[in-house]
Amino acid sequence: MSESKGVFGGGLTIPTLPARWLYRIASTHAFTERGLYLNLGYWAEARTIDEACEAMVELVGRTAGLTSADEVVDVGFGFADQDIYWTRRFAPRRIIGVNITPGQVRVARERVRELGLEERIDPREGSATATGLPDACCDVVIALECAFHFDTRERFFAEAARLLRPGGRLVLADSIPTGPAVDPWRHPLRALLNDAVRAALSVPRANVYPREVYAAKLAAAGFEAVRVESIRDQVLPGWSRALFEDPGLRRRLGPVGWLLRRMSRTPLHEGFDYVLAVARRPSTETVT
Q1: CA gap 173, 18 in Å, rounded
Q2: Residue 96 φ then ψ, to 5°
């Protein structure tokens, strides 16, 4: 199966901003008024960004089927809001968080300690593609709105397969491109802009592919029961509406909110999909 270059185009060489730099620049600017959530939100019933961000975390937790028996590895955990929520809501045995941004890890540890949850939540600094954790150490691996940053997403799939016990579950909420590839020779300015957006958002070019390729890569990593479902219509329109109608959100986003407010709504939707991906490590076969 050939890989589409998607909305970000191809053939250009704009260097990708490292994810740790991106989030260092963002500092503790968060999307929500309460807490420090950093996801775009699930807007099926939510009316505010606070409700939507929590609804996304709830959706991912339910999709993962979290129970009190589960040991979880949460990669790209932000400021640990989602881990705190899952601990209170589903009471998994333990959550180990892995995050490449030192400032976020520091804040997460402070929040976990203040809540007395150190025995339940263990935020660590590290790479999603090389966690340093033992083989078959967990029942669930989660990546909530961060896998597009990983260098590469395929390497993360392999790492997740290594970490999971037989029958373990992998769940991702992820943003990917959709639509036809941009031909840099026929549309050079658009291709340049798309590649600049990709680089600024810390998305390696190797991660730019649509849903069918996404599912094929999960299967190639040894996963079964693969499902990659678009939830775009429950995410992107609500997020875009909040950017234009919620002054508090724009204020919390700082200069980025000011810039996005001055863009037309169409480019915020065009060319992007948002997926909920689920896969399972086989119960009897060895994943390598």
Answers
A1: 20
A2: -100, 120
Q: What is the pTM of this model?
A: 0.87
Q: Is residue 14 over pLDDT 80?
A: no
Indicate the residue type of 6.
G
- Domain chopping of the chain, boundaries: 6-68+127-280
Residue 230's region, left for phi above 0, alpha for psi from -120 to 50, else beta, is beta
pLDDT band at 194 (very low <50, low <70, confident <90, very high): low
Helix (H, G, I), strand (E, B) or coil at 88: helix
Which residue, 100, 142, 95, is CA-closest to 117? 95
- CA neighbor of 261 nearest in space, from 234, 243, 274, 247: 243
d(CA 250, CA 261): 8
Q: What's the token pair of residue 240? A: 């875009």
Determine how many CB atoms are found less than 10 A away from the CB of residue 157. Answer: 27
Give the architecture-level CATH label for domain 6-68+127-280: 3-Layer(aba) Sandwich (3.40)
